[in-house]
Amino acid sequence: MSTANVTDKQTDGPPAGDRWQDAWTVMEKFYRAEAAYVAAGGFGKASYDEVAAYLDPEVVLYQAPGLPFTGTGTWRGRDGLERFLAAFSETWASMEFLEQEHWGDRDTVVVRSRVRFRARATGQEIDTLIMQLIRVRKGRMLECRPFYWDPAAIAAATLHA
């Protein structure tokens, strides 16, 4: 198992044959594209092309039910992820990755992120942790299962004032 911090020196790409490093490199780029998409207003206001570039055509996102942006909980394909990010962008005005650590083996990476969200409806900020189990295939995210540290605080921050 390997570990590193997002603030480590960046390279232009992984060494040949290092598929785990490739998985983390893909996710770093995905996180930047996702944050930019949300900050630009999301669906109908921002281009989804950069986000979609890091998604396998058969990508599946498994969100926990009960959060304001999770809908059915399972989002399939690039179109499904776009619908998820539309709901996510309606909920959050911004998201900032404050810290990230990652561990991986081959095409799987586990990412612990400390994230600051600002809710659109209330303006309230929340600083929380998210753990994600991610599988990558051929340089694109295939599957993601996020686990939120404090779902109740996330729900409370997004309730209309």
Description:
By secondary structure, the chain is of the alpha+beta class. Helix content is 30%, strand content 39%. The protein is built from four helices and seven strands, in the order βααββαββββα. A seven-stranded mixed sheet has the order 1-4-5-6-7-2-3. The N terminus is likely disordered.
Main β-sheet description: 7 strands, mixed
Shape: globular
State the total count of DSSP E strands: 7
SS element count, helices: 4
- Secondary-structure-based class equals alpha+beta
Q: Using only CA atoms, what is the Rg?
A: 15 Å
Straight-line distance between termini: 45 Å
Order of helices and strands: EHHEEHEEEEH
Strand order of the largest sheet: 1-4-5-6-7-2-3
Average residue pLDDT: 81
Low-confidence stretches: 1-21
Helical percent range? 25-40%
- Provide the β-strand percentage band: 35-45%
